[in-house]
Amino acid sequence: EVQLEQSGAEVKKPGESLRISCKTSGYTFTNSWITWVRQMPGKGLEWMGKFDPSDPDTDSQSNYSPSFRGHVTFSGDRAITTAYLQWSSLRPSDTATYFCARLTDKQYLDFWGQGTRVTVSS
Amino acid sequence: SYELTQPPSVSVSPGQTANITCSGYNLEHKYTSWYQQIPGQSPIVVIHQDHRRPSGIPERFSGANSGNTATLTISGAQAVDEADYFCQAWDNNNDLVFGGGTKLTVL
User: Fold this and answer.
1) Which residues have a Cβ under 8 Å from the Cβ of A55 and sit 6 or more positions away?
2) What is the pLDDT of residues A8-17, one digit of tens each?
3) Which residues of B touch A37 (CB under 8 A)?
4) Which of A52, A72, A99, B58 has the highest CB neighbour count under 10 A?
């Protein structure tokens, strides 16, 4: 059974760093891209970008949405089949729920994590 | 940037047919997927590749894509179908795009 298990809720201050995780199981981690999706409170879904766990080149393994490029970083650990989303300096506007989701070869998102709520407030 | 436009809300009575539209330039030349999100839960895919229904999704869910509009149809809508629905496609830069979402009310 395919599962994506995300890390728990976080409360941080502006300027702090953060890394949240998406632990995958039930399939071969390197066979599918992982996408990240933001949902601000009461709002819709926003695609942040996608990460290719099979690509060892850190420069090419991630595609970022223009709206998020330069503010977030995707990464992964093949040994523990886990993908990560990280910020080096959080802003209050980063307050949202973040979902990871598996991208199929048919270009849709078939399995989703349960979401990680991030609150950034002074 | 590519945009997908959905009506903010759709209301139907139980047992009626709900049609949720998603408009985008030349959308018929792109595959469209649809996701259902019940408040407080993660989205699930209900239609992919315009009209394909994943296993476990009821037959009352169907999809079509023609011209500039994709449509999600729920035939015989039920109270359990009340949720937000989002369409999704890929733009020419290989970026994923979501529609703004449609709140379906069944009452």
Assistant:
1) A61
2) 999 999 999 9
3) 98
4) A99
